[in-house]
Amino acid sequence: MPLYTKLPETIGEVDVIIAGGGTAGCVVASRLADADPEMSILVIEGGSNNQMPTVEYPACFLSHLAPDSKTNNFYMTKKAPDAGTGCSSRPQRSDWDAWNTPGWSADEMIPYLKKHETYYGNDDKGLHGHDGPIGVSDGTYISHRIVDEFAAAAEAMGWPKVDDPGLGSVNAIWRLKKFIGPEGKRQDAATCYLHPRLRDGKHPNLHVLVESQILDRAGVPLVADLPGVGTGYEDNQMLGYPYLNNLSLTDTLDGLVFGRMGSHKELMKSNHKMMGWNGQEMQSKLRPTDAEVAALGPEFQKAWDRDFPTDPRLATGDPCLAVTAFTVYPYSRGQVHITGPNLDDPVDFETGFFADPDQLDIKKHIWLYKKQREAIRRMPAYRGEMARFHPPFAADSGTALVELAADAAPIPRDAPETQYTPEDDAVLEKWLRENVGTTWHSLGTCKMRPRDQEGVVDPELGVYGVQGLKIADMSIAPRNVSANTCDTALAIGEKAADLFIKELGMSSA
């Protein structure tokens, strides 16, 4: 298999070099290899070969996010002045259209969204693919109790359950289809695109070099002055909120994570059905009411009226019960730049979390906290908040954290919403600033925009002022997307491969 940790001396020259074996890079390499098996392609990846059991089984995903993980790189960000230290989800139709770039509208991108996908579910809207490399399914396990209880609680708050959000639903909830095959294996681009072609004997000129960075120095001469490189960094700022509950061991991943159900090795050997589950069941996209927008203040109202008023987005230890809440259209911006010529020189990295001038992102998170808490309180499984993961509201406040007895009656679904005082909001805001984190949805540092608007690439993904250099990953996104970014990255990879194949005079497979 042509996968190396050191490039063989026999490979002295190649036709195409792909720097980075990320989602879009793997798609591009694979599609180019299909289009012309005689073309020599080299993928250079800093990480290791991802063919390992803990990557293959979705239940192990948390181990790769831990600070001591050997499968991820972690970059230290500067302390932000406005923040303390600290799935198969698709964008809206309007997200693509808002990119305002020829060839990249929603209607033009739907074929690429479908091309990478084999969707195991109802497709009444005809928006899904059925013969692509990436399997999208329920996996091998579902916590029906969480699904049923959350759906009922959400309906009581006016958020109906829909089968498939397609490219439009907001103020609704749905069962989260995942990048997990029906047999329970993780569906990533390297596994589903690249490795099959490295094994099949039909792509002898496709080479992958892992654990390697071939640029000995970053002090390369300036070829094109592009101020937009590295600026405009965006990420969907996230916080997670665990709750006390009376769920069983098989309703969460805790039994697997903490070894209560046996070792991972034993569970993998028996192909335990819960190993094909990532513990994430329900998803929603919520929009505040007019009254809630007004309550967030005049600066927020002004931004809302400008950006969203008539937008098409209006279309419709113990078992851990938790909500992860993130804002999908952040106003905050950061940056990422090199600081010197050596590979081990630190990166000048600022997330920019909560740094937007009018402080709109923090206001959104204040609203998000209150909304998700109201929904969870209406689930029969709810038994209070895990205090160390929630704001320390005063004990005599109506918002005080609670711990209910195991046999306590559930909170009625028609109970009035909790009322927060200005003092409560101050506690909440301080806690949010001290605990905000990443959603791993980084994008926008090489935007596909006109050059005079700090753009870095054109609609064909060519870097302005440089011949033969293309960029195809989430850095090209000119605006954020209301979704987890993997699906968008796959579509970008498919679109990019199509563009490159045509430019090279080849025919797509």
UniProtKB/TrEMBL annotation:
<keyword id="KW-0560">Oxidoreductase</keyword>
<dbReference type="InterPro" id="IPR012132">
    <property type="entry name" value="GMC_OxRdtase"/>
</dbReference>
<dbReference type="InterPro" id="IPR000172">
    <property type="entry name" value="GMC_OxRdtase_N"/>
</dbReference>
<keyword id="KW-0285">Flavoprotein</keyword>
<dbReference type="InterPro" id="IPR036188">
    <property type="entry name" value="FAD/NAD-bd_sf"/>
</dbReference>
<protein>
    <submittedName>
        <fullName>Uncharacterized protein</fullName>
    </submittedName>
</protein>
<comment type="similarity">
    <text>Belongs to the GMC oxidoreductase family.</text>
</comment>
<dbReference type="Pfam" id="PF05199">
    <property type="entry name" value="GMC_oxred_C"/>
</dbReference>
<dbReference type="Pfam" id="PF05834">
    <property type="entry name" value="Lycopene_cycl"/>
</dbReference>
<feature type="domain" description="Glucose-methanol-choline oxidoreductase C-terminal">
    <location>
        <begin position="330"/>
        <end position="493"/>
    </location>
</feature>
<dbReference type="InterPro" id="IPR007867">
    <property type="entry name" value="GMC_OxRtase_C"/>
</dbReference>
<feature type="domain" description="Glucose-methanol-choline oxidoreductase N-terminal">
    <location>
        <begin position="86"/>
        <end position="203"/>
    </location>
</feature>
<dbReference type="InterPro" id="IPR027424">
    <property type="entry name" value="Glucose_Oxidase_domain_2"/>
</dbReference>
<keyword id="KW-0274">FAD</keyword>
<dbReference type="Pfam" id="PF00732">
    <property type="entry name" value="GMC_oxred_N"/>
</dbReference>
